[in-house]
């Protein structure tokens, strides 16, 4: 009995993974309105009824896709070594965030578009997707810098990370999507922000 449950669980996980992979491709190509559950099911070679059963339809599938992307960002190892200063640690983290935005730019554009044009989507997003994500790895690194006396203990680490991520998201919206700036220019703008922001975090 237990073996059957484990097998069913693995089968469902594999099916969900295939549907999410197909969904990312179809949504990225056709946008939210152009994508259909029929096209996604066909792309994944999976019965369309399973989208309703596992994700409660198109909205649920898209929200699951966005959530999985956000969770993978948290789980993804930081691709740079710990830095020796607050400025460099936050600058490198900003580069990490912006690279992720550029890699998922089509999906990011769709999410932003749905926020503006679809009240139903926005309501579901607020109910399903956590607003504050954070990054445990960065928090641990900042804590080490704090313990070494390289930054003030006045500001909560979670708030600092939230500020950095909010600015990266805002830059992605204004500089990448609206003004079509390249990654190097956007990263330079972010670095200038960090150099100013980090002054308030230093011990005076």
What does this structure look like?
The chain has 2 domains: 65 residues, Homeodomain-like (Arc Repressor Mutant, subunit A, Orthogonal Bundle); 129 residues. Helices cover 77% and strands 0% of the residues. It starts with a helix and ends in a 7-residue tail after the last helix. The mean pLDDT is 87.
Helix content: over 70%
N-to-C span? 64 Å
The largest β sheet comes out as: none
**What ranges have pLDDT less than 50 throughout 5 or more consecutive residues?**
none
Portion in strands? under 5%
Structural class: mainly alpha
Computed Rg? 20 Å
- How many structural domains can be distinguished in the coordinates? 2
Look at the structure and give the mean pLDDT. Answer: 87
Number of helices: 10
* H/E element sequence: HHHHHHHHHH
Number of strands: 0
Layout of helices and strands:
Layout: H1 2-34, H2 37-44, H3 49-55, H4 57-75, H5 86-103, H6 105-117, H7 119-128, H8 136-147, H9 157-178, H10 183-197
Which features characterize this protein?
single chain; 204 residues; mainly alpha; Arc Repressor Mutant, subunit A; 10 helices
């Amino acid at each position: 009995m237990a073996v059957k449950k484990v097998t069913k669980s693995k089968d469902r996980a594999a099916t969900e993974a295939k549907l999410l992979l197909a969904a990312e491709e179809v949504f990225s190509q056709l946008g939210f309105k152009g994508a259909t559950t029929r096209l996604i099911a066909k792309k994944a070679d999976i019965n369309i009824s399973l989208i309703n059963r596992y994700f409660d339809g198109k909205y649920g599938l898209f929200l699951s896709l966005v959530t999985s992307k956000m969770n993978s960002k948290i789980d993804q190892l930081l691709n740079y070594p710990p830095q020796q200063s607050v400025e460099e640690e936050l600058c490198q983290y900003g580069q990490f965030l912006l690279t992720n935005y550029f890699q998922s730019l089509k999906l990011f554009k769709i999410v932003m578009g749905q926020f503006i044009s679809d009240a139903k989507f926005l309501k579901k997003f607020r109910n399903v997707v956590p607003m504050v994500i954070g990054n445990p790895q960065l928090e641990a690194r900042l804590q080490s810098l704090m313990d070494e006396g390289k930054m003030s203990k006045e500001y909560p680490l979670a708030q600092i990370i939230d500020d950095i991520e909010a600015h990266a998201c805002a830059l992605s919206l204004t500089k990448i999507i609206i003004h079509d700036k390249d990654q190097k220019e956007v990263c330079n703008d972010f670095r200038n922000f960090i150099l100013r922001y980090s002054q308030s975090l230093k011990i005076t």
